[in-house]
Design goal:
Blueprint lengths: L8 H10 L1 E4 L3 E7 L8 E5 L7 H19 L2 H4 L4 E7 L8 H14 L4
Helix pairs in contact: 2-4
């Protein structure tokens, strides 16, 4: 399954208003019901300039996309298919290893899945 990203500002704003927020050490995950009928989770990534240079921010985005692609292989286990997810990164994410990020996301998506 491919990763479908959210790109429109209006979808990020709607997610901020109406989403369920899940707080972790390195993220705020916003989970909002999707408008689309394709029954596939969509993902958005927010990483502000306060976190680092463009090189650092792009590296973080590549890591997150890689982890999400890995989790999508078992999508029924981790995601509600009719929802969109926005990952907002905190400053501490720069110091975290790939494995720690992966474990954190796996735990949060598995524990906050609502059937």
């Amino acid at each position: 399954m491919t990763l479908i990203t959210i790109k429109k500002r209006s979808e990020f704003i709607r997610a901020n208003k109406y989403s369920k927020k899940i707080y972790t050490l390195n993220f705020i995950i916003q989970k909002v019901e999707s408008n689309k009928t394709d029954n596939t989770p969509h993902f958005g990534f927010t990483i502000t300039k306060k976190i680092g240079s463009a090189i650092v921010r792009n590296k973080i985005k590549r890591r997150l996309k890689s982890i999400i692609r890995k989790l999508l292989k078992c999508k029924d286990k981790y995601f509600d298919l009719s929802f969109n997810y926005i990952l907002i990164c905190k400053k501490e994410i720069v110091k975290v290893s790939y494995n720690d990020l992966e474990n954190e996301l796996m735990d949060k998506f598995k524990s906050n899945r609502v059937s």
